[in-house]
Each structure stands twice: as C-alpha cells, then as structure tokens.
Amino acid sequence: MKKQKIVPAILLIGFGIYFYLQQETNSLFHEFSTWPTLLIIVGVAFLVQGYWGRDYESIFPGVILSGIGVHFHIANKFALWPDHLGAFLLIIALGFFLRYQKTGNGLFYGVLFLILAGVLLFYDKLPASFGLLLS
C-alpha cells in the first residue's frame, strides 16, 4: 500500500485558517498574522506527518520550522527569552532528540548541539563558574 502524505492537507487547512483570521477585522489572533506563524504552520504539518504518518524523518524539519516560528513570536514578548544563536542551536538539539526517540539515530548530534547551545546561552556566566572551581 502506498504511503499517504498528510503534509499537503495540513498545509492547506493551516493556510486557510491563517488567511481567514487575517481577513477578520476584530480577531483576537491579529498579532499572529505574521510570517513566523506561517513557519509554525509548516512545521506542525511536518510534525503531524512525522508522528501520525509514521514518517519519522519529518520530525526533524518539523521541530526546526515550528521552533524557529515560536522563537520569533516569543523573542519580542519576553525579555528572558534569548535572542541569539544559542536559542537556535537549542531548537536544533531538540529536533535531534525527538528524532532519536523514534528512529534511534542522531543522539550524538543532539548532545553536541545541546552542549554548544549551553555554552552560547551561558557564555557570560562560564568564567565566573570556572573561577570558583579553580580557587
């Protein structure tokens, strides 16, 4: 039996809802009518294909696309959220870990990206912690 793809259906439904909410004048979702929302829609389509369609290689691009979309929505609203390369590397590490959960490969790259993200996210605090260890 030929494997059915779910991505086009989710994309059409997601883009339809997106453009419908964009046309509404008094919509509560007006702040979501930006390009990061489109990344989230495409990412969710890949995630649905990965988990429901059992196409586990689609999990990684789904996490990357939806993670970047969520990052750009959150980065302007919360001062605590980091807005530099470390956040993107953390999203990539999460993608590798979720793919490893289903396929069994990619753990090394997930750990590597997680370490790099940790170093970049906490770069300003690292010298102080090493100073405590050395003294």
Automatic annotation (TrEMBL):
<dbReference type="Pfam" id="PF18917">
    <property type="entry name" value="LiaI-LiaF-like_TM1"/>
</dbReference>
<keyword id="KW-0472">Membrane</keyword>
<feature type="transmembrane region" description="Helical">
    <location>
        <begin position="33"/>
        <end position="52"/>
    </location>
</feature>
<keyword id="KW-0812">Transmembrane</keyword>
<dbReference type="InterPro" id="IPR043726">
    <property type="entry name" value="LiaI-LiaF-like_TM1"/>
</dbReference>
<keyword id="KW-1133">Transmembrane helix</keyword>
<feature type="domain" description="LiaI-LiaF-like transmembrane region">
    <location>
        <begin position="6"/>
        <end position="47"/>
    </location>
</feature>
<feature type="transmembrane region" description="Helical">
    <location>
        <begin position="58"/>
        <end position="74"/>
    </location>
</feature>
<feature type="transmembrane region" description="Helical">
    <location>
        <begin position="6"/>
        <end position="21"/>
    </location>
</feature>
<feature type="transmembrane region" description="Helical">
    <location>
        <begin position="106"/>
        <end position="123"/>
    </location>
</feature>
<feature type="transmembrane region" description="Helical">
    <location>
        <begin position="81"/>
        <end position="100"/>
    </location>
</feature>
<protein>
    <recommendedName>
        <fullName>LiaI-LiaF-like transmembrane region domain-containing protein</fullName>
    </recommendedName>
</protein>
